[in-house]
Amino acid sequence: MIKRDYLEALIEQLTAAVERALGHVGSKRPDDARREIDAAYQQVGLSALVVDRLDAASVRMMAGDKVEALVHLLEADARVSSLLGDEARARRRAALCAALRRMVE
């Protein structure tokens, strides 16, 4: 129960970070949007750089019980990246998100 509450709180924090990032995109502040997303990865215990360099199985292992929160963050990162015109990053994040979903289902 405590673990579930912790994960739900983490997802809420990540959701707030994503909303702030989307606000920065809308305000034409892409650097702030990217910083917000990168900080959210730190909350999950990873960095965007690590996520870029590892395969899905390794990311899953590193995320541990936070994988559900990470999936939500990857979806948001894909969306923000697309809005910022970084389609390559958006595709990578969407693909990793899909792979992690398959692993946890």
Provide the number of structural domains.
1
Mean pLDDT: 92
Low-pLDDT sequence parts? none
- Through-space gap between termini: 20 Å
Helix content: over 70%
Rg estimate, integer Å: 13 Å
The number of helices is: 6
Walk me through the structure:
This protein is mainly α. The protein has one domain (2-104). The protein contains 6 helices and no strands. Helices cover 85% and strands 0% of the residues.
A few lines on this structure:
With 105 residues, the chain is mainly alpha-helical.
List the helices and strands and how they pair.
Layout: H1 2-26, H2 30-44, H3 48-53, H4 56-63, H5 67-83, H6 87-104
Helix pairs in contact: 1-2, 1-5, 2-5, 4-6, 5-6
List keywords for this structure.
105 residues; mainly alpha; globular
